[in-house]
Amino acid sequence: MAAPAFESFVGWRYLLCASPRPRILLVGLAVVAFGLCVTHFGTQVLGEGNLAGVLFSRGPETPKVVVGVGMALCGLGCCVALYGALYTFLTAFSAFSAFMVAVSVVVVVLVLGVMNGFQSDLRTKITETQAHIVIESADPAADLSDYRALAATAREVEGVVGATPYLQAETMLTAPKNLQPALLKGIDIETIGEASTLPSRLQEGKLEALADPSLVAPFSLNKFPSLSDDPEAAIRVLDAQIDALKTELEEKAVSPVPVDAELAASGMEIPLPANLTAGPPPSIFLGIELRRNLNLWSGESVNVVSPFGELGPNGPVPKSRPFRLAGWFESGLLEFDTRLAYAHLPVVQRYLGKGDVAGAIQVRVADLEHAREVRDDLQQALGPSVIVRDWQELNSNLFVALRLEKIAMFLVLSIGVLLAAFAIVCTLWMTIIDRRRQIAIQCAMGAHPRAILRIFMFQGAFNGALGAGVGAFLGLSLGFLLSRLELPMDNSVYYLPNIPIDVRAVDVLSIVGVALLISLLSTIYPALHAARLRPVEGLTGA
Q: Could you count the other beta carbons within 10 Å of the beta carbon of residue 279?
């Protein structure tokens, strides 16, 4: 018998059990079946018939406890069944070490998949609301006066889908019941659809109302739910709007401005104060959470206050102007939904007193992964008078932090693989102690120490490879299943409709590689100890 065949033959003898033992596997499957029955009972009999509704609703706690116990039993049964499947053909020590490696690999794969999903979801929401690429003036204190020509040039660059100008400023929104800081952003409604998903994210109102305020219907009590539909909600809404109606009526009762008869006869136009407007006030769209915080409804008035106002007798006076709420939008990201407010670009230009300028140009590219190449092409096409930055530069701190968090999580979860490697070491030590006489007999019959070394390294490497392979398969399968199920989450807490899972092949290969490397390294010391065992010591038990 050749040497490699002898080593593999002896290694398999130490790995495999004498006869199949499916008892533990059957016990695990029985526990899984019982857990599914308990979960079904808690969902269908005690709950609302929907697993997500039972877990995330604000209903009674009894169905939640029953469903939680059922799911815990399912998880425990799956672990027992996995160990039982390995124990059916392997020895107890080998099955336990492979089971530890498999569980640690599954945990790392799923956790990194969830982190990848959150990062991808966050990146999508940021880039859909903000810009893929931003074009700004090279002078930080200057605006873009030729923004139309710059946007037209940007659209001609390969890879650019659209470009739209905008002008933004930090403001304070005041309502009768509350006030909130906001980022007022003036947009061009003709081109905003080219570079943003704002038109598709409107929950109330039409984007054309920004250019034509007459499209916004005045505030009316008829918009609220009737008492017969939802009495509590209707009473709550009506009570909250009484003071708002009184304040709005008081604001409309403005005394007429005295005008000199000669000036009136001459036809000279007299400018109105900043807080007064001729005709209906301009329209504004708010983030859905910002609208809730201000307790406003469509058609109501909200004052936009800017700290950069006129110079009065006693110093700078903040500029305030009433806007009418035309609707609201939902970006899916809490930071944007609580801060962003959109108005028409010419309105914001007049409000800030900056003339026909834009603060920056928002550009959308066809492929987000090639944004840097498009950025370089834009910089070359537009010249040194502007600065072009892509989404990675605009959000560099956030995504660097997420990347470091993922690396740290990978290192922390790798401790589980180290514990599994410790199980492999313990398995080899127990095997060496149990097979001490057989090892001594093989050495006495002429087996080379290197052959003994390879026998036990083969045994440990096989346990690690089997566990890593089973863990990778289960991790990929569970990740695919969970991504299809789209497990829901409480929007009021996590601001996500479901748990995002994105299992990537690079992560799985990295995890399997680390598990194999650690498993192989953990076999060296026990295998060396077995190879150095002298026949006399093994036969006498010294």
A: 7
